[in-house]
Recover the amino acids of this structure.
């Protein structure tokens, strides 16, 4: 099969990715082989490729095939798999496998499993014509969803859904979203499903335009005005979600919310001072559970959310990542073999 291989970590401008012909894998017990129809391009792919996460042990092996938001068709089935048959449409998210026995797995927080395997980071991912998956961590994909729109549901979709669930939204609540990209544009849509008023803070005009198109109640250009002052003038916010990789945005989010409010983080950042007298809560959010993934697919199939994406052939993976690094996408890029 053809696959995009990372054999060394380096800046994307130095061409660390190469397309190669490698052996098509064979599914073992409990595994299935997917013929890839589409694979989303995530900023975490870029972090891994450029070596930023090497101190954290990512990638866990070299060479490796990146990519962790994948839709395809079942091509082969390993021993013991009864939940899928050949030809079924299926999807894979970053959570490739978990132990199924630890306190996190047994309480619906399997994304925190300490022995989890991550698609495209510890095992080969979806920048390829075929990819292996654990059947118990693979999801049926409704036929009503196009391949390119379905793939981003398996990372930004589940990530946004879990983050919004932690913000405790309800009709009449006001939330501020910092970062309107691949995940952020889905956070906006999920927050609106809760009946919340959504304010979007970003520095890119194309991101702010997309926020308006998707129904944001207000947009704030952080390159022109102080977001904290603008939000406080409108009465403050009940919650904030941050998916912009900026410690400054995180501190602004903490300042902008009301006392007793919640800030949900989906990025690494320095939090800074946190006044205890205001009883504000800051929490992280990582992916989501298998049940939540099924709920995301149901909402998308019902037409209640819609990923926005640009499609590229697999051979142009490097170019897509370079454009991602430059901030040129409205939302998500998707590779199609």
């Amino acid at each position: 099969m053809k696959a995009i291989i990372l054999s060394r970590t380096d800046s994307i401008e130095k061409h660390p990715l190469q397309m190669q012909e490698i052996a098509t894998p064979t599914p073992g017990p409990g595994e299935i082989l997917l013929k890839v129809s589409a694979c989303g391009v995530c900023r975490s792919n870029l972090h891994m490729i450029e070596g930023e996460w090497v101190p954290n042990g990512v990638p866990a092996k070299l060479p490796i095939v990146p990519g962790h938001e994948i839709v395809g068709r079942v091509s082969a089935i390993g021993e013991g798999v009864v939940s899928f048959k050949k030809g079924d449409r299926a999807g894979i998210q970053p959570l490739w496998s978990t132990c199924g026995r630890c306190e996190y797995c047994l309480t619906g927080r399997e994304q925190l499993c300490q022995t989890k395997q991550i698609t495209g980071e510890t095992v080969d991912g979806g920048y390829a014509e075929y990819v292996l998956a654990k059947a118990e961590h693979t999801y049926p994909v409704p036929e009503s969803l196009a391949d390119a729109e379905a793939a981003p549901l398996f990372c930004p979709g589940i990530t946004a859904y879990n983050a919004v669930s932690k913000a405790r939204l309800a009709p009449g609540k006001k939330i501020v979203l910092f970062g309107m990209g691949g995940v952020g544009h889905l956070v906006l849509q999920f927050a609106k499903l809760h009946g919340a008023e959504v304010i979007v803070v970003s520095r890119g005009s194309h991101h702010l335009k997309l926020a308006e198109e998707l129904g944001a109640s207000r947009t704030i250009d952080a390159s022109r005005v102080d977001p904290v002052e603008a939000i406080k003038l409108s009465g403050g916010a009940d919650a904030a979600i941050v998916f912009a990789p900026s410690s400054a945005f995180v501190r602004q989010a903490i300042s902008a919310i009301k006392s007793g409010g919640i800030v949900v983080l989906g990025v690494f950042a320095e939090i800074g001072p946190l006044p205890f007298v205001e009883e504000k809560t800051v929490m992280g959010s990582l992916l989501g559970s298998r049940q939540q993934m099924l709920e995301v697919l149901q909402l998308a199939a019902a037409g209640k959310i819609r990923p926005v994406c640009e499609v590229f052939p697999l051979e142009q993976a490097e170019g897509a990542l370079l454009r991602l690094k430059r901030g040129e996408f409205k939302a998500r890029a998707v590779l199609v073999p």
Summary: The mean pLDDT is 96. The first helix runs from residue 43 to 49. The longest strand covers residues 31-41. The two ends are 10 Å apart (CA to CA).
